Amino acid sequence: RIALLPEEFEERLRQLAAITGALHSDLGVRLDVGGEKIFLVDDTGRILDQQVAAAAMAELTLRTHPGSTIVVPVDLSQVFDQIAAAHGGTVRRTRVDVQDLMATSARESIIMAADGTGYFVFPCFQPVVDGLVATIKLLEMLAIQKTKLSEVVRNLPPFYIAKGRVNCPWEAKGTVMRLLNEQFKSAHTERLDGLKIYLSDREWVLVRPDPDQPLFHVVAEASSSQQAEELVEKYCRIVEGLQA
Fold first, then answer.
1. For the chain, what is the largest distance between any 2 Cα atoms, rounded to a whole number of angstroms?
2. Which of 9, 24, 25, 196 is 20 to 30 A distant from 208 in Cα terms?
3. Quick check: 192 and 207 in contact, CB under 8 A?
4. SS3 20
């Protein structure tokens, strides 16, 4: 089928999880209608959060190819840097844009890319998102390492991400970004895509204007879910205040 309603897709994903768990299968995989994204269920029948799935794939890839470089967008957790460091690898960040992800993946020495929404790139085959190739590589790495997906997930470092959105008129977005840069000019920041403010080694906030809609995305990482949510709420209020 060309398209599925979101609620229909979610229901089918839940069915896959129930079947995977009941049959004690190694894992369950569902592709989106275009065959580009994958959605994973581990061997216990648990539907994996997409960032967790990306982190598990990064762990498997860097175990298989230690010292390599992986690519993820600027809005994904610092856990990818922890995983890479544990295997002597590195992380390259991109804008929150699948085209930028694929373009960066085409560069020399990149072993894998993931965007945390179900897109994966394995440049050894071709530097584009491909759900079937991602599925094959996942099966291959699990078999080579003689492990289960649930075990990989269980051993990942914990991480906590929260997200929010703030409506903003098109004509005000440039002003808001300028004022944000002025307000945080003395902080440790990164301007790869929007403004990313590093609060500590484990805490950061990203404020990013949406390229297609009149709004800002606010993403935060902290040492607990509650702290991440509080950071998102705080910076959403800051963005709202700068529109006044």
1. 57
2. 9
3. no
4. helix
Task: Give the separation between CA 70 and CA 60, rounded to whole angstroms.
Answer: 12
Q: Which two tokens stand for residue 109?
A: 């020495």
End-to-end CA distance of the chain: 46
Residue 121 CA to residue 143 CA, distance in Å, equals 20
Two tokens, residue 75? 């809005």
Residue 98 to residue 130: CA distance in whole angstroms: 12
Other Cβ atoms less than 10 A from the Cβ of 188: the count is: 11
Angstrom distance (rounded) from CA 163 to CA 218: 6
Rounded to the nearest 5°, which phi and psi values hold at 202? -115, 0
Q: String of b and e for 96-111 (b: at least 16 CB within 10 Å)?
A: bebebbbebbeeeebb
Q: How confident is the model at residue 1 (pLDDT cuts 50, 70, 90)?
A: low
Kindly report the number of other CB atoms within 10 A of residue 127's CB atom.
19
Q: Per residue in 90-148, pLDDT tens?
A: 999 999 999 999 999 998 889 999 999 999 999 999 999 999 999 999 999 999 999 99
Cβ atoms within 10 A of the Cβ of 184, count? 16
DSSP string spanning 83-144?
A: HHHHTT-EEEEE-S-HHHHHHHHTSTTEEEEE-SSSBEEBTTTBSS--HHHHHHHHHHHHHH
- 8 A C-beta contact, residue 192 and residue 93: yes
